[in-house]
Amino acid sequence: MFSIEGMVAVVTGGASGIGRAVAERFARAGAKVAIIDIADGREPAERMGADFIRADVAEEDDVARALAEIAQKNAEINILVNNAAIQPFGPTMEEETAEDFKRTFEVNVNGVFYGLKHAPRHMPDGASIINTASISGFTPMPGIGKYGASKAAVIFLTQAAAIELAERRIRVNCVCPGITRTPVVTADPERKEERMAAILTPLGRAAEPDEIAGIYHFLAAPESGYVTGQTYLVDGGLTTGWSKQLVDTLLSAR
């Protein structure tokens, strides 16, 4: 069940974090994996038996070239995970720079758009595209205006593409992870996001990347053949409601 053995799977941003966990899971399941990343992913790709192509998803020509190269080698692409993104938390919108705002959309939104534009021509009918957004696309908070807006755009692009590609039965879905122990989170010496997860998340902790990867496997497999245009929140219950830890923290502060 849920076999993706022999399928050709492309993961952008697959050199680290959630993308790497997804690529590793696909490889263990017998898929032929190709990683696209601006960072050097040769070592993890070699270890999991995957191909690696260096490309910047913010550049349309890079994305088109990489996808064409993968398709030429493998005849087709069965699974595309548009995962590459940057996570620039920080200033309020009053303090935001136009340059940083623009760059966030170039990577997080344009990168997904270029995948949606160029991959289908290399995909057979019934293929699967999975976009990575974030719970930030649903839950605003101070300092994440540009990031949250970019992820909300990814959710909308997912729905639009699902409708447009439905005639070919190419399914397009979206995964919205919660706070996850990716390198950008674990590198923070103050552990701010992990401390937030301990209070805000009913499960009381941040996720490990491997715990997010399973939903991608489901959406890639034939058993999800009637699932398209959907957005899956994988957040330990964070967006469900107030956690007990949060209520206890608020009450103890009185």
Write up this protein:
- This protein has 254 residues and is α/β, with parallel strands linked by helices.
- It has one domain: Rossmann fold (3-Layer(aba) Sandwich), CATH 3.40.50.
- The protein is built from nine helices and seven strands; from the N terminus they run βαβαβαβαβαβαααβα.
- Strands 3-2-1-4-5-6-7 form a seven-stranded parallel β-sheet, with helices on both faces.
Average pLDDT taken over every residue:
97
Question: Counting H and I runs of at least 4 residues, what is the number of helices?
Answer: 9
Q: Kindly estimate the percentage of residues that lie in beta strands according to DSSP.
A: 5-15%
Number of domains: 1
Distance between the termini: 52 Å
Radius of gyration: 18 Å
Largest sheet: 7 strands, parallel
CATH superfamily: NAD(P)-binding Rossmann-like Domain
Order of helices and strands: EHEHEHEHEHEHHHEH
Helix/strand-derived category reads alpha/beta
Question: Uncertain spans, ≥5 residues at pLDDT below 50?
Answer: none
Tally the beta strands. Answer: 7
In oligomeric terms, what are we looking at?
single chain
Provide a quick synopsis of the model.
This protein is 43% helix and 14% strand.
Which key terms come to mind for this protein?
alpha/beta; Rossmann fold; seven-stranded parallel beta sheet; globular
Summarize the topology:
Blueprint: E1 8-12, H1 17-28, E2 32-37, H2 42-48, E3 51-54, H3 60-74, E4 79-82, H4 98-118, E5 128-132, H5 145-164, E6 171-177, H6 183-186, H7 192-200, H8 209-220, E7 231-234, H9 244-252
Parallel strand pairs: 1-2, 1-4, 2-3, 4-5, 5-6, 6-7
